[in-house]
Amino acid sequence: MAACLKDARVLFITLQIFFFMCACVSGRRNPTTPLNGAPGVNMCKVQHVLGSQDKFFTHCVAQHLKMICERPTYDRWECCSGFQKTGRERGCSRVKPLDNIIETTRDLGLTDFISHAEGAGLLSDLSNGGAYTVFAPTNQAIREVSPDVLSKLSPDRRSMSLLNYHVAPGRLNISSFRDRNQEFVTLHNGDKVRVNKYAYGVATVNCARIVRPDEMATNGVVHVIDKVINPADIKGNIAERVLSDDRFSQFQMAMLISDMYKKLRASSQSFTLLAPTNHAFAKLPSDILDKILTDADTAEKVLQRHVVRGVYCADAIVVAVGLKTMDDTRLLFRCKRDGLWINEAKVLHPDLVASNGVIHGIDTVLLPDSVKPTATLLHDMHLYSFLNLARAAGLNNTLDINNITLFSPTDQAFKDLPRGYLAALIKEPLKVEQLVKYHMVRGRIDESQLVGDSTLNSMADLAVKIKVKISRKGVTLNKSTLEEHPRECQSSMIHKVDRVMVPPEKDLMDYIKDDPDLSVFKHMLEKSGVNEEWLPGGSYTVLAPTNRALAHVDERQLQEMMNDSTRLRTFVRRHVITRMILKCSIPEQGVYTTRSKQGDETNFAYDEKNRLFVNTHSRVLSEDILTSNGIIYKLDHVLPCSCEPRLRTDRGQYFGSHSYRRRY
């Protein structure tokens, strides 16, 4: 029976595959079957950008984009190239016979191109000669050019028409443009055009976008473009081009001071140059501007941030593209509703084409961190609260001390401080200064130089050191965790931390003395002498049972222990760990295991209600309280100890066999 069922299932699956293949074959053979959800046969989707004249054909954009340049798109269906409608049919079933280039452009509605081709004497050649590839500008593109360029489209017989520059020998389909950057010879005195291909299927010719590619003709192929292209635009390289433009005179000075002018002029590679305008340089602080225009090393660092390998035209950016500069920095080239942006710089003058690349004029100088003063980098990292606190303490000059490291709390870290703490602190300028300097260390220290269970000497006039702790969750300084990677500026290295590092004013014993809940444990420490073992600069964790916790111990046994200094010292050491255990280093799921100074295993773990327990028995009642030489946790039970196996609770239960609240 089972064998029959198995054979039936195999037969059923085989029949499904057979019918599916038949449907596929019949679909290929039936020319009247619409594809890709089209309303009719041989129809192609055109994406229109709302609020603009831009449109993208499906074979031009590789995927449907719901937003282009932060504007929504909507779809319309048109007859695919080479097809036309018959009567009122929904699709485009009639095949248009191929015609010559002139008739093909006429069919595309490029009347201005045909008119200037006639004036330039190109009608006969484009009708009967070939094969040619024509980059035909739209009517709107031709009507928007200057009178001087317009006259060059239809010059007298003694001059060559600018339209010759739009014609290349051979049949070059969009698939022929295989590399990101290719050049092709034209009929205009052998001058070349540069074709670039980008993401989303976008292609450009001298930075003019191909808006409708691959319109086939009997004697070639037509690509419709959105600009008139000019060989004069690419006669000089980008270094020469920017040097001849007065809008970039400050940038020119920086190029000449550094070696960048020579590099760009001599290189055989193609580049995109992001050239800040004179107004962009005028926005810089005077000291930074002077250094860029007088110091070759500084000018070189700034210019490397403005040079990108490869050609990235404005029309190539339909959403966003990542750029990599010569100093290996990543920039984001975005197309937004209000224009093109490169990081925080707006593109004012796009697509200044040159022989070895393209120039975009921008309104902001892209400063590398290495030339910024500390205050500027703090501002760029959005560390406003720390910067304002430093200025309030009159520490502007201190921030610019050379070769220091700042561990700057985020703005959220300042908001997380106890209510009223910051307002009260500002009234005491000396304490503000000490707090800011406590976050500063001499020398440039990156994350790789921070070693666990070590200390850092801050620049504050305090004996308290910063405790460094390494866990699987990252690097912790006191109780503050490092965020992101550090950034390095002209005089310092800056790390973000998620908490304000308030310098602890008490050591372990001072805190225990001042806490009335720990008075019995304080007495045990003093009587055993364990507190005298704590070094001032040490890193300890004290698991301090509260008075109520110690009240659970059998009174007679506790008194016997208090009268025996050796037993008492061993028992107290059971509650001391010779390293700092922070809450942030304990996993939310799992167990953090270490050993006490007495030698017993100590386990930290959270229960299902996110409560922290030690050895499943003792619940932690407090935060991890930071002192100058360690951490204190307050416990609701004493810890069972192998040194006191007979120790009982006030109800006669042995601590070692106490019913655990949670099992690991």
UniProtKB/TrEMBL annotation:
One of its GO terms (biological process) is cell adhesion. SMART domains: FAS1 (SM00554). Keywords: Signal. Transmembrane segments: none annotated. Residues 97-229, 235-366, 370-501, 505-639 form the FAS1 domain. PANTHER family: FAS1 DOMAIN-CONTAINING PROTEIN, PERIOSTIN-RELATED. One of its GO terms (molecular function) is cell adhesion molecule binding. InterPro entries: Adhesion/Biosynth-related, FAS1_dom_sf, FAS1_domain. This is FAS1 domain-containing protein. It comes from the Eukaryota. Residues 1-27 form the signal peptide. Pfam families: Fasciclin (PF02469). It comes from Arion vulgaris. GO terms for cellular component: extracellular matrix; extracellular space.
